[in-house]
Structures are given as structure tokens and as C-alpha cells.
Amino acid sequence: MGSSQQSSIEEELDSLCITLQSILPRLLTASLNLNSQPLFKVAQTSDYEHLRRLSTPGPPSDINQVIDDAFAIAEFRARMSHPRAMAFIPSAVSPYAWLGDVLASAFNTFAGSRLQGSGSGIVEKTMIDWLAGKVGLPGTAGGVFVSGGSMGNLLAMALARDHRLPRGQQATGVVYVSEQTHHSVSKGLRIIGFHTSQIRHIPSDDNFRLDPIKLSEAIRADRDAGLLPFVVVASCGTTNTGAIDPLTEIAAVCGREGMWLHVDGAYGASASLSTTHSHLTAGLRHADSISWDAHKWLFQTYNCGILLVRDRKTLLKSFASQGDYLRDALGDDDVPNFWDCGLELTRGDRATRLWFTLRVIGEKRFGDMIDHGFFLAEAAEEELGKLSNWEIVSPASMAILAFRFVPRDKTDAQWNELNVAISKRLVAENIAGILTTKLRGVVVLRMCAFNPSLGVDEIRGVVQQMDRVAKQVYLEHSSA
Ligand SMILES: *Cc1c(COP(=O)(O)O)cnc(C)c1O
């Protein structure tokens, strides 16, 4: 009986092996050959029933059929790696990232402790040290891989509270963000028990950067009112415009006031790895903590974020906890128990994919891939500058460009409508994934140009197509 069970396991493995060999090339094609695929494909109510049927468990099915079903389900997704997908910051993924992820997933290393995952633990620690070195943090620095920027920001707010607010004073603490700060910061603060009234949204300057003078004034006013300012959240690359707050000036304010400086570098911290633009992020060295997403401008698959801290002991002080049954699993400074550095106990290996990508393509090409985003946005801005009726609302910064179509004979309200219509048409015709956002109350189009496989000439072509679409939409609106 034992041997027949053995042979059936072997048969099953043999057949899995064949399946795996066929699925990898198919996946590579499906995930890389995107140019002619739809940018967005959203399931409509008429698709739901079919999708629900595919989703429902039941008797065993042929594995190849289930794989086909998985492809059918994945049809309904935005192709975030599409060369002309410019609607969101998370965009192109490197094939090496997902291959690395496949490896990590197959080994399924438990990355919570040194006992269970010392190999991947060293990789995680080495990646953290390498990234911390790139942004200029000192040798005391540390960090932890997390699900993403939202989690990084939440943990950073807990660190700032634990290390800068006296015990029992949470209700009098005040947090300073800019009006351009990512909403995940407020969300994290609410989750850890702060009230919205404890968050000050400091106005930004003409370039959408947090104004350090207004910051100082707000801190002064709060101190006079008996409150306890304890953390400033600065951005290195805002979501709307790619603005970098004046980190050095803000750090000086924090130093003077004894406040924690958290920098949200979810995507912008990646510029520190670029070949020619790393000087832009020099101010990151002043941060007490930095959130950074590898699943944005480091071309990794999702759920790959990093929280870096100036002093790794702060992580342990805030997040280490004890379960009696974990007493035999001890970490050390070289391989910490990462379950003591954040929220998660059971956690997967998120670092291997980044290590794998960097090892395969090397630091130089990686840096060039980041640089390319700068060049793309600058080329698009230059091309727009040649056309009439277009206004650059926020110039190319960190691969983001915001602009709008403003024909003279229309009103503000009509401009807003026109730009929404242009975006819809660009998507409907699969020309480019360019959506709208609002800046100072007006609707603008926004390009996030991060994809290393989009050529500089191609992005110029997208701008020309956009101009054609804008004229068409304008005529339709004028004759309606
Ligand atoms: C994307 C982003 C976040 C949120 O990160 P997630 O990984 O999506 O949770 C926070 N801040 C900034 C500036 C971002 O660009």
C-alpha cells in the first residue's frame, strides 16, 4: 500500500512538472507582451455570473482547465505594466521580480524569525542595510519589509508616538502633514487612535511643497495652546505632482522642536538609486523613519514595501512582543526576528524578489531604469510645450507631470469637463492610461511615467495623440 501511494505521488509530481514547464512561458508572454492588450478591462455585471461560477469550489477539475480559468479571470485587470499605463504610480514590474517571487513562494520560507528563515533573513537584512546606505542613514539604521506604504506609514506613526510623546499623552499629541500628504498617513493615525483634529494640514507653496515657515508657525501655535507637537510627515515625491518637500529645512525644525521626522518616500525614495538623479533625495538622510515601496519605482510585484528607521532599536522597543511558545526562537542583531520589527507574526519572504532582480540585472541597469522615468516625463513636458492650448500645471518632477487642456474660449468649469472627457477618450481608445486629479481645485491630467519599456519617442507620440483627441473632444463639446 505504501509503495502504491509512493508511485501515485511520483505520478502527480511528474504531471505537475509538465504543467509547470508549459505555464511559465505562457505567463511570460501574458505579462510582458502587453502593447496591444487593453489598458483597462473591468468586469461588467454581465461578466459577474461567469466569474462567480469560475470562483466557486466543487469537485476536482483538470489542472489545465483551472489554469485556463485563472487566465480568464486575470483578463479582468488593468495592465499596470502596459507601456502606456500612466494612471498610477505602481506600474511596470520586472520579470525578474515575479520570477524571484515565484522562487520565494515555492520555498515559502517563514520570514518571521531567525530560527525559521535565517537565509532569507540575511537577504532581508542586507537589502535593508543596502537601501539605508543609499539614502544616507547611519550604521544604526534598520528596517523591515512590509506590505506597502500604507503599512509603513502606520508603523512609523506608532514609532513617532512611542518615542516622542510622553506616556499617557496621546490625546494631546499633534501631527503635521502637508495638504499634499498621502491619505494613508491620516488613515494610519486614526487606526492607532489619533483623532482627525490632531492632524494639521500645512499649506504647500507654489510648487506643492510643504512650507517650513508655516510649519514652524503652526507648531508654535499648538505649543502655546498646551498641545504636544511630536511628528512631521514630509513627502519625498508626492502622489499628485512628485514634489519633494524641503527635507533639510523640515529636519531643522524637527531637531529644534525635538520632533520625529517621518518621510513618506513610497515611490520617491527610489530616486536615490537612480544613476543621475540621486542628489534629489539627499535630504532623506535626516529622517527618523522612511516608508518606501519596492512595488512602485523599484519594479517589484505588490506587497513589497520597506520601512526604514534611523535607529533599529526603536523598532524592537515598539513592536517586540512575547509568546511563551516562541521562547526558543531568538534573533540577533545580524538576523533579527522580523516579527519583532513590525505588526506581522507569520510573514512571507518579501525581500528575495528585490534581491533576485538586483542580482540578475545589476545596480547600474537598475539605476538606469529609474532614470528613464525622469527622461520620459521631461520629454512629455517638452512635447506639450510645442503645442497650443496646453498648460503645464506642475512640471515634470520625479517622473510625474500634471497638465490640462485650456482652449481660450472656454470657462473654468468647461475646462474641467473637457479634461475629464479627454482622459475618458484616451482610455476608451486604448491610447494611454492617463486619468485626472485635482490640484488647487482644478481638474488636471496626470502622467506617471515610470515604465522603462516605453521609449522617449513613444511618449512624445502619446502626447501628439492626446492633442488630437483633445481637439476632437473640444469640437464635439463646442457643437453640442
Ligand atoms: C502609494 C503611496 C502610498 C501608499 O502605499 P501603498 O503601498 O499603496 O500602501 C503612500 N504614500 C505615497 C506618497 C504613495 O505614493
From TrEMBL:
Transmembrane segments: none
Gene3D superfamilies named in the record: 3.90.1150.170, Aspartate Aminotransferase, domain 1, Type I PLP-dependent aspartate aminotransferase-like (Major domain)
Any one GO cellular component localisation term in the record: cytoplasm
Named cofactor requirement(s): pyridoxal 5'-phosphate
One Gene Ontology molecular-function label: carboxy-lyase activity
Metal-binding among keywords: no
Modified-residue entries (N6-(pyridoxal phosphate)lysine), positions: K296
Keywords, comma-separated and alphabetical: Decarboxylase, Lyase, Pyridoxal phosphate
InterPro entries: Aromatic_deC, PyrdxlP-dep_de-COase, PyrdxlP-dep_Trfase, PyrdxlP-dep_Trfase_major, PyrdxlP-dep_Trfase_small, Pyridoxal-P_BS
Gene Ontology biological process: amino acid metabolic process; carboxylic acid metabolic process
Keyword Iron-sulfur included in the entry's annotation: no
PANTHER family, alphabetized: GROUP II PYRIDOXAL-5-PHOSPHATE DECARBOXYLASE (PTHR11999), MIP05841P (PTHR11999:SF70)
Assigned protein family: Belongs to the group II decarboxylase family.
Record protein name field: Glutamate decarboxylase
Organism, as annotated: Purpureocillium takamizusanense
